[in-house]
Each structure stands twice: as C-alpha cells, then as structure tokens.
Amino acid sequence: MIENKPFQTIVTHLLKMRPQILLFGDSITEQSFRTGGWGASLADTYSRKADVLVRGYGGYNTRWALFLLQHLFPLGAVKPPAATTIFFGANDAALLGRTSERQHVPVEEYKENIRRIVNHLKECSSTMLVVLIAPPPVDEEGRMKFARSMYGDKAMKLPERTNEMAGVYANQCVELAKEMGIRSINLWSKMQETEGWGKKYLSDGLHLTPEGNGVVFQEVIRVFNEAWLSAAEMPYDFPHHSEIDGKNPEKAFQQKCL
Amino acid sequence: MIENKPFQTIVTHLLKMRPQILLFGDSITEQSFRTGGWGASLADTYSRKADVLVRGYGGYNTRWALFLLQHLFPLGAVKPPAATTIFFGANDAALLGRTSERQHVPVEEYKENIRRIVNHLKECSSTMLVVLIAPPPVDEEGRMKFARSMYGDKAMKLPERTNEMAGVYANQCVELAKEMGIRSINLWSKMQETEGWGKKYLSDGLHLTPEGNGVVFQEVIRVFNEAWLSAAEMPYDFPHHSEIDGKNPEKAFQQKCL
C-alpha cells in the first residue's frame, strides 16, 4: 500500500536509531554536562553506541516532575529510551518552615511520586532499564557558608536542608526500588563512606564537585554493567578506523554498518 | 482512517521532539565529551532547549565519512538535525610516505568530499544549519614528542603531519564554505593567533587540551549565535522552577509545556 510506505520508512529509521539513555532529575542532573560532569562522562563512555540525553530540571521536586512525564515519555513511542536514571529527592527533602519550603514534598508522597514515574516508564517500555538514584548527603556547614557568600547578613540562619532528612528520603528511594524489583544507587550512603565527603564531593553542601560527579558516574556505570547495558560489550556503530583497508574501504563498511 | 492513526501519532511525537544538534567529525569530535570538552559544553549550554549528539569517528578521513552519510542522515527523516557541525581534515592531511599515509586524502578530493557531505545534508533538510570546522594547527614538535613517549626508539623520525599542510586543508575548507554560502570556522588560523598555541591548545600536537576545547566551543557558539541558533533566545522546554506556584503548580504547566 502506498499509504503505508512513508509510515514504514519512518518506523525503520526510528528502529535503526541507536539506543537512548535518558537522565531525568533535578539540578544535579541538569548540571551533569558541566566540566567533569557525570552525564558528559556517560556520553563519552557510550560514544558510538548509545546517545545520552539530559532531562534535568533545576529546583524541581517529584510533584512537579509528574507534569513532565507524558511529554518526556509519551506512551506509544516507537523507540522509547533503552535506559533512564531517575534522580530526585534533594528538593523534596527541603524542610518545612525554612527558606526552601515551597520545594518540600512529604516523604510518603515523594515515594509515591517516584513509584508513579517508574510505573509510567514501565508502561512506556516494559524492557526499559530504570535506575533510581537517591539524593546525595547534605553538608549543612557547606550550605550555610554558601548562603552567607551569596546573601551576607540576610542569609538563612538555619539550614534549609539537613543531612538527616536527606537520609530519610534516600532510604525511601532505595526501599521503593526493592519493592518494585528495580535497581538503585544509594548515593547518600555511598558518599559518606569517604572521609571528608562534605568538601570533597559537594561544592556548596548540596551540588557536586568534579570528584562528586565521579562517584555518580562510577556508580551508574557499575549498575549499567550489572544489567545488560555494558558499553564494553556493545558493538561500535561502524568499523574502527584500523579495520578499514585504505585501498578497499568499501569492504569494511559492507561488513559492519549498524 | 484507522491505518493512519499510529502514523500520525508517531509523526506528532517526532515533531514535538526538541531540536537536535549533531557533531560529525573525527577523533576531535569523538573526544568532545571528555573533561572540558567542547561537545559537553554545548550540551550544557543547550540543556532544556536542544539535544547535542556526538557522531565522532576517530581516525576517519572524509573518504571514509562518506560511507556513513546515508546511515547518520537518512533522506526522508521526519525530524532531521536542526544543525550539524562537520569537522574533518586532520586525518586527510596526513602526509604520503609517512606513518599515517593510509589516512591521507588529496586536498582536492577532501574539498569535494566535504561538498558531497554538505549537499547530502541540504538534501536531508534545506533548513539545516551546517557549519564547517577547519582542522586545528599541528604542533610538529608536540607530535614528535608524543610519538617518542609512545614508541621510544621505534618512533617516526619525521612528523606524519605538518602545520603547513594542515593549513592547506583548512584553507580549502573555508574556501568551500564561501563557495557554498555556508558558515565556517577557521580553527587553524584562530588558534595560531594566541602565543604558545602549540602547548596551550594541543595535548599531543594534534588533539585538544581543555583550553583548546574552549576555543572550539566559543567559536561554535559564536557562529550559532550569529545564525538563528542562540541558546539564550530559545525558550525553556518547561517552566523554570521559580515560576511554579507551590500551591497551584498546574497553572505554570498549563501555560508552558513545549
């Protein structure tokens, strides 16, 4: 049928597109392509194998993230992402009665919102690799110092986030992953295994230094490798240049064009 | 018609996808998501506005790049890239009779190959912003030093690339852009405006240091801004978090969801 020809051409193009890895989260995801960022390192690792797309929304909590779901992950997409990281909680855990309370989401609702996000992704694609990343720890002293450097005497007198509360959200995130049988990274715990984590991994008590980005990158790679998304085991899209015969280049491309 | 429904749904999804910026080139493009890389910086700049995809193929010359065209830029795609950078020449300019001669492509053929790439992209999408990037200069001393560090006494005795020859290819690249009425970046000239460019911008006499990546990033941004692809003028995909009313978040999302 003539009518079906463009349809099939489009579907064929889409199916031939390389896999996509989507990074969904708040500012820690949005900033992941800055110097030393974990998103950029993933894009470098999966170069010629998968595309890494950043969907980070600074300041967002899970309640607001729900509004984006149908736009970022439309149901019925021919080629949904092969893998998605979900990295929220740092803003949900902002304390009531402090300067960032408009971002606060109660921990029970946080857990349910993440569950809704995961369920939507699974409806979008039952084979999608979904990885939850719990929020990082909070260095309260670093937060206060940052606030004073920004606002001087007008800075908050009490931290708007505490490490203890971030831990409550991190635990619920990891707990939910267990309940749903999906993979997770307990960044809150992992970072605190290292002496001096507050200054080493956090630039302002909350966001990541290049070293902190390195921890997220290593953890994501570890989980991807444990699943089926190991870059080392994925084929190159086209021949490595050393496989190309300078006098007869066609041969290599006939053999290997994904 | 029922048959057309999925077709239209798919096309609608595709048209709603954010614009793509594709980086097509050799190793200098493939490595552009390493720490301080120009590709990662572009992805950061266009976050929430456009996706930056790396299509870099280490060791490739323009002759081999032609084999990839129909795969990377299929004709009839519903949503071709909004912009593409074409960044070849460093390998084409490898000298005959030296250690990298299998990568050599005569300069006349190099120019014609780039012309074929541009023509294919224009056939793919007449509105695509196509930017040619000429190869960087070569620091012959840096190349020799790198070879000795890798191969010791077995290293090449004569450089496999010269700065003079890289300049010949860069000139042809810029010349072609003028002929075709498209934009170009003369990286070879630009980098040599700075004292000590060899060590400052090149890590092994050919590939880029973080500072060298910074030059490419600034030049690409300058050209994109001069065209119609200024990140500052592109809308955010969803509301900035400060626009969201904590008590009535729906409102912001009803007003602004691209």
Automatic annotation (TrEMBL), chains A, B:
The answer to whether keyword Hydrolase applies is yes
List GO molecular-function terms, semicolon-separated. hydrolase activity, acting on ester bonds
**Family matches, as InterPro entries:** GDSL, Iah1-like, SGNH_hydro_sf
- Tell me which positions the record assigns to the signal sequence: none
For this UniProt record, the keywords arranged alphabetically read as follows: Hydrolase, Lipid degradation, Lipid metabolism
- Xref: Gene3D superfamilies: SGNH hydrolase (3.40.50.1110)
**Which GO biological process annotations does it have?**
lipid catabolic process
Domain of life of the source: Eukaryota
- Please give the family membership noted in the entry: Belongs to the 'GDSL' lipolytic enzyme family.
Q: What is this protein called?
A: Uncharacterized protein
